[in-house]
């Protein structure tokens, strides 16, 4: 700024007033300063400015699997909320590893971010408590806090799974297989609970032989689905707990060429043109990020000493259907 002032033959204070848009600066002076800015390629150091007034102007976002389109949508929602308040987002991937997550949040804390949004790995999240992170505000997304209190934004995992499984039962299916994440994962556990509740509501009991609670990606889901569908008493429908598992099941159906209906959590590209009877639990993944971002900004704005109770927000789901459903 001093270089600009010297070049324009004005004071550094005048340069500051021009850059802030002060209407009291004479037009000739303003043009001279802006000309000097262009000539010298001056850019204001936003990081230094924010540190002077308090805050880095950055928030951290830690997700568990960047390969999953769900997290890219969530990140876009966070970025939208951050942009509205002039904040930037630092994105990291924990790969569902608690130790890696701990290292990432420690690095973000050392970078003096104003707050963090974390999709937590593992079941205990005490390392994410503000007291463990130098008082940095935190919001959890997709999974609730374990062993601590924190704001969180969730999806209606139970309700969505129950509604989709009920649709399969209404279609006449009585042998409905389950392809789900490991039971230790919150979303997998809640979606299994919804699957089971739909059967209980219809006075049916799922066959444990048709339940697979271990697949984590397309390949493992495909193998699990092939194993289920090759059984002489195979399910006539499958419920899958996320888009990757649904895609693995679709691969298995294509391999075996069997008339099996599918239901799954998470919409995905081209689901509507596959020509398969698909029942999908859909929701606005961007909205999860937006809500988490706004919650975090509330915390940042309130200040470190604010005594705000932990809040929980749940994004609703809807069931949509693709392809020709059985009559």
UniProtKB/TrEMBL annotation:
It comes from the Bacteria. One of its GO terms (molecular function) is DNA binding. Keywords: DNA-binding, Transcription, Transcription regulation. Transmembrane segments: none annotated. InterPro entries: HTH_LacI, Lambda_DNA-bd_dom_sf, Peripla_BP/Lac1_sug-bd_dom, Peripla_BP_I. The keyword ATP-binding does not apply. SUPFAM superfamilies: lambda repressor-like DNA-binding domains, Periplasmic binding protein-like I. Residues 1-53 form the HTH lacI-type domain. This is LacI family DNA-binding transcriptional regulator.
